[in-house]
Amino acid sequence: MGVVVVAAGSGTRLGASRPKAFVELRGATILEHALRGVLESAPGELAVVVPEELVGEAQQILARLDLAGTRASVVAGGAERSDSVNAGLRALTDASRHVLVHDAARCLTPVAVFERVLAALRAGAEGVVPGVPVVDTIKVVDASGHIVSTPLRKSLRAVQTPQGFARDVLAAAHAAGAAATDDAALVEALGYAVLVVEGDERALKVTTPDDLARAERLLAGA
Length: 222
Ligand code: C5P
Prior knowledge:
By secondary structure, the protein is of the alpha/beta class. The protein contains 7 helices and 12 strands. It has one domain: Alpha-Beta Complex (Spore Coat Polysaccharide Biosynthesis Protein SpsA, Chain A). α5 packs across α6. The structure holds cytidine-5'-monophosphate. The site of cytidine-5'-monophosphate (C5P) has 19 residues, from α3.
């Protein structure tokens, strides 16, 4: 199995002076926490996608980690998340039948989430994403702000990463060239079935200073 970790976003909503994945969280960068979690799932290969000017720093982070036989590389990302995923996909060999795409910003994702996604892929799913029920009622609105519809709350899931796919399915979805905020949307658009498995509150995406504080509390076990 191959894993693409995307960490090339600027993270402007966090308001830090460095790209988000390189911000410190209790003594290690967000990227380092994320990579430790990914390596617990023992991938055969790993592509880490970072801003071009930080490729060297990411290589130093990887050098400090116990790769335990994982073939790892660092590549520069692109302007959109899907450009970064594409760059990571190109860095993987053809050896991996399954590929997981993971946001570095979800740096505390428990290994059990990786295992659930992989188990469903190995059981034959074309696409698998972790998700959690939503607590708010969600409205679809039009450009003028008026409500168009109210989806049934119990049918909604907030989806997380790692998102896993048969490698050829993900490559076809990205070759179609559309942009999306997650990979599943590209795969769904091609008509493939994507299964949602149980996510985890600890797989939160660190986006705002509040999220960073919450991640700090989770790490401290508070
Ligand atoms: O911006 P967003 O919250 O969707 O970012 C999710 C993940 O995608 C983050 O880990 C971020 O570093 C990554 N990303 C990327 N390249 C971009 C934009 C986002 O690798 N151009």
